[in-house]
Amino acid sequence: MTAKQVYASLRALACGERAASLERFVQAVPGGYGEGDRLLGCTVPDQRKIARQFRELPTNEIEKLLASPWHECRLTGLLILVDQFEQAAKPKNPTRVSDCRIIVEFYLANLTAVNNWDLVDSTAPKILGAWLVEHPSERDVLERLGASQVLWERRVAVLATFPLIRKQEFTEILRLAEHLLDDTHDLMHKAIGWMLREMGKRDPSQLENFLKKYARVMPRTMLRYSIEKLSKEVRAKWMHR
C-alpha cells in the first residue's frame, strides 16, 4: 500500500464542480482561512471508504499524504490515522499503550497538516482527546496548544476536550474557554461555544456558573453557541446580558 495508490483512488472520484463548492466551504479562496488549499472534489463518505481500504497504510506513506497540497489527501491520511488509533486502543491489544502513544506523537508532530476545521474536528477528539482521557498527567499539552499562535493548534486543543467532557471532566474546557475569551477568530468562538454547550448538556450548573462570570464579555458567537440548547427564554436572558 502506498500514498500514490490512495491519491489515485481519490483522483478517480474527483469532481471539478464539487471542488469549487468545497473551496468555499473550507474557505480555500483568496483571503479565506484555507487560502491556497487545493480540492479534488471528493465527498467525505467516499474518503472514509478509501481510508478503510487503506487502513494498514504504513506511517511513512501516511506522512506523504499529510504533506500533500490536496485537501482530500490530507483528510484521508488523517482518517486512516484515526482508524489505526482506534484499532490500537482496543483492550485486546497487548501493546495498546505504546502503539497509541506512537500514533499520538506522530499526530502532534504533523499538526501543520491539520490546517482546516474539518481536519481538526475529524481527528483531535478521536486521537489526542481519546488519549488524554486515559493519561491525565499529559493534559498540559492542551495548555501549550491553546497558547499557540496557530489557529488550528488552538482549535485542536479545544476539540480534544470533547472526550473529557463526555466523561464529565470539565476542568480543561473551562480553563481553555477562560484563557481564549479574547481570541479574535470566529472559528475559535464557535469551537469554544460548542464545547461549552456540550458541557452544559451534561452539567447545566457548570455552564450557568461560567455564563454568570463571563457572559458580558464573551464574543457573541461563543455565547450564542454555548446556549443553543437552552430554552428560548433563557437564551434571550443571556443574550440580553
Automatic annotation (TrEMBL):
CDD domains: AlkD_like. Pfam families: DNA_alkylation. InterPro entries: ARM-type_fold (IPR016024), DNA_alkylation (IPR014825). It comes from the Bacteria. This is DNA alkylation repair enzyme. It comes from Aureliella helgolandensis.
